[in-house]
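Quick one, tokens below:
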């Protein structure tokens, strides 16, 4: 236990304190699921687990409100596992180490998991709150949201009976989310040809680090640098000055996080080292100038490497040029803004990872749009670009968006309560990110849905932080909403 359990409201923070100690990477949520079930069991509440591992706990309405319409509360159990390269942390076994930074709670060089751990903690607090007045509740904890919303996609919807849902996976205080983008991933595979390394060659390790990264949906409009794209840009420029070959390349970690770090190991003739280094340094200087406002802590390093032996194989020159050209040509960032909702990103894509295994390079692209045809056109563009480079493409099925319903009764209730209880008029918005609401709403037509949460900054990056006092206001809005929804008509 840490100081976190003593924050207010303690009913929420004590659960989050425990959640910090439970490893919960995507697809490995068994331990956090066991904790959720444990909380339900000790409060004598029934639970059900579907074939995908999603958990539903039912809590009957309090006395006098048993006949009210049921409400679903929903959060996901997994977290994004990002860390700084100089931090020793095993997300499969180590607890998250929290620290307070003024008004915020953050972690020590890793993601905090407030996305969506605060939502889970709030639901567990409600399970244990015997004074709260509410109607029948169906508390749905989904699996594997962060790697493609697969828990929700494979949900056994027959578990649910309610026709209104409050999703707790939003990250902007004072905002009520009523819509989200759909999305889909593309996996590109490029075969590279290897040749024997020359004994006269020298190896250089080129690394870009210190970028902010962030959520590939909600942060994509901030014009932060993509470490993979920027490294490729510099290497492409260096190829115009002198030849080199790639021995290995690596960048990014998660499909839904903007890459913060990327590294390449080059082999080159010793006589060309000064020329290549000078070219790289000049290009890095330009990049740093361009991104000085968005990426003030960006760092480059060029060092000698002894990781490539004289007997090793390296990529041939055509493979080196093709890979760097492909990464340069692939789109990244905001591609279109909404013409209907001012300030909303309509279409974007994130070049999220590049990995080398044997003689194959894989590149992951995560694309989003609130317009289905625009998403399809973007994936077609990625496929065409890959095909020109000789790469194969595997496309995932994707997930649907959530169309806003500004006439929603649930929206009306929460808007009124926000003004009455918190003293401010909330913003009503859609977000450029995937929410499980889109999937659940497609499964159960007519579902009235809304999403809100506390203030969480920089999710999906080691800079992730949650505003401590906003959690109390979020929980007040949630509990008052449940009380209001259970009043007799």
């Amino acid at each position: 236990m840490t100081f976190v359990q003593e924050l207010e409201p303690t009913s929420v923070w004590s659960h989050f304190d425990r959640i910090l100690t439970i490893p919960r990477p995507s697809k490995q949520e068994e331990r956090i699921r066991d904790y959720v079930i444990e909380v339900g069991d000790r409060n004598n509440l029934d639970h059900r687990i579907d074939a995908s591992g999603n958990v539903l706990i039912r809590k009957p309405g309090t006395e006098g409100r048993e006949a009210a319409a049921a409400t679903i509360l929903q959060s996901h159990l997994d977290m994004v596992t990002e860390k700084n390269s100089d931090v020793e942390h095993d997300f499969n076994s180590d607890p998250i180490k929290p620290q307070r930074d003024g008004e915020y709670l953050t972690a020590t060089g890793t993601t905090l998991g407030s996305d969506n751990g605060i939502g889970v903690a709030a639901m567990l607090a409600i399970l244990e709150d015997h004074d709260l007045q509410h109607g029948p509740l169906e508390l749905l904890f989904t699996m594997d949201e962060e790697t493609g919303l697969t828990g929700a996609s494979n949900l056994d919807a027959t578990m649910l009976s309610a026709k209104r849902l409050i999703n707790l996976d939003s990250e902007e205080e004072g905002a009520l989310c009523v819509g989200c983008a759909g999305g889909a991933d593309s996996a590109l595979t490029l075969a590279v040809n290897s040749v024997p390394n020359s004994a006269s060659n020298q190896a250089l390790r080129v690394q870009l680090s210190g970028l902010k990264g962030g959520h590939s949906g909600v942060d994509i409009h901030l014009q932060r640098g993509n470490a993979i794209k920027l490294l490729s840009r510099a290497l492409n420029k260096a190829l115009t000055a002198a030849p080199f070959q790639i021995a290995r390349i690596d960048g990014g970690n998660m499909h839904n996080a903007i890459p913060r770090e990327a590294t390449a190991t080059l082999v080159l003739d010793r006589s060309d080292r000064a020329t290549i280094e000078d070219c790289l340094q000049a290009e890095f200087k330009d990049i740093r100038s361009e991104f000085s406002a968005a990426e003030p802590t960006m760092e480059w390093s060029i060092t000698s490497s002894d990781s490539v032996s004289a007997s090793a194989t390296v990529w041939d020159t055509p493979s080196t040029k093709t890979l760097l050209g492909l990464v340069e040509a692939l789109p990244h960032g905001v591609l279109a803004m909404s013409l209907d909702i001012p300030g909303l990103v309509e279409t974007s894509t994130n070049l999220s990872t590049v990995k080398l295994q044997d003689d194959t390079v894989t590149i992951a692209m995560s694309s989003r749009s609130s317009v289905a045809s625009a998403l399809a056109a973007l994936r077609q563009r990625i496929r065409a670009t890959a095909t020109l480079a000789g790469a194969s493409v595997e496309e995932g099925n994707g997930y649907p968006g959530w169309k806003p319903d500004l006439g929603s009764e649930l929206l009306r209730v929460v808007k009124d309560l926000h003004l009455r209880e918190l003293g401010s008029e909330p913003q009503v918005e859609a977000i450029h990110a995937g929410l499980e609401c889109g999937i659940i709403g497609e499964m159960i037509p007519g579902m009235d849905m809304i999403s809100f949460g506390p203030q969480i900054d920089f999710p999906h990056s080691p800079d992730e932080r949650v505003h401590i006092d906003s959690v109390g206001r979020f929980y007040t809005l949630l509990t008052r909403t449940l009380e209001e929804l259970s009043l007799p008509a």
